[in-house]
Amino acid sequence: MLDMRKLQKMLKNVDIEEIDATKVIIETTRDKIIIEKPRVMKTGFMGQSVFQVIGGSLRKESQSYEEGKEEKKEYEVNEADVKLVAEQANVSIDEAKEALIKAKGDIAKAIMILKESG
After folding, report:
1. Closest Cα partner for 17 from 50, 47, 48?
2. Cα separation, 80 vs 96, whole angstroms
3. What is the pLDDT of residues 50-99, one digit of tens each?
4. CB count in 10 Å sphere of residue 110
5. Which helix (H) or strand (E) element contains residue 25?
6. In CATH, what number is assigned to the domain containing residue 19?
7. Rounded to whole angstroms, how far apart are CA atoms 98 and 13?
8. 82 lies in which domain range?
9. What 8-state DSSP symbol labels residue 29?
């Protein structure tokens, strides 16, 4: 059974800190996961740190390695970004997605690409 006094004593030793992050990048052997405008909390307890990443817009980049250089191959874009670009540029969802991929996830650049081509 959980002893409330012990629990309260343990929680006094927990450090919680919000980190003012603008971007979080998680690199795996195959992909990069990029989270823009996240809320990041750091919790420390008994010499260990835990980082919690909440919210933000997410995109995933596939990557390959050639001659020691990283080459970005493909971009998966956020649905909300695709809808925003489609509305702003007055184009179809498919055209908006293609422009976002070409712009590497940069919303403003994607809209400019579509407005210049249309």
Report:
1. 50
2. 11
3. 889 998 888 888 765 443 444 455 567 788 899 999 999 999 999 998 89
4. 29
5. strand 23-27
6. 2.20.70.30
7. 50
8. 77-118
9. S
